[in-house]
């Protein structure tokens, strides 16, 4: 067999480490293999669009129709610039790994064949590649990103620090997204639909009581509050004395409360700060279990 030079094709930061060059295509359903042993074919093939089935692990739940129509028109004029990626299940049978928008738009543009890279992967590898590919290459909304992070942790058995390395984000960022999934469904839906921003949601989540969260959310939407206004309201809810005595000026105390709010958001825990009249005090960061403690220690490690 003659050796040929193959050019590695990256799927995005982090995925290059998951994939190694291979000289053959597996024509049957791939069996489970360690992620480090994952192989792929880097040559490009023209595949009949009717031979490609959708990705059952697709993390994206919504595709903008107008954007899809614009992409279809672009493909009609310029063709496919970036090939899709598939895995081969059998003869003339493929399953999409990444590029669902390109595939859908190509069908709309009337293409019968589409350029594709063929890779081999088992179901878990499919899920991980699809999730990471989408996180890095698509403009997912905050909830879709959070769900993708959560699936990578729970279904691909990744720890938060490993996940951060795979997607190029630090553990704090990953944790801030995952915390959004603790919000009531109606608030998650509003964040998904861009009725509120990530900043609004991160402020709301610092309130423990669900009814208070929902009440605050209603006022945010009805009165079109800014993120700063929401943060101020959350501080008042957490410290009722601020609302009761608006005339009382305590610059240092207010500064500490602001710091307490920022630290709570940063660590993903309800941080408390106590100080006396001589500006002496303590900072407490609570944790619920060993895993939560490890997470907080990891965040502290990032600051060093």
Automatic annotation (TrEMBL):
One of its GO terms (molecular function) is DNA binding. It holds the Pfam family HTH_ParB. SUPFAM superfamilies: KorB DNA-binding domain-like (SSF109709), ParB/Sulfiredoxin (SSF110849). CDD domains: SPO0J_N (cd16393). Keywords: Chromosome partition, DNA-binding. One of its GO terms (cellular component) is chromosome. Residues 45-135 form the ParB-like N-terminal domain. It comes from the Bacteria. One of its GO terms (biological process) is positive regulation of sporulation resulting in formation of a cellular spore. Belongs to the ParB family. This is Chromosome partitioning protein ParB.
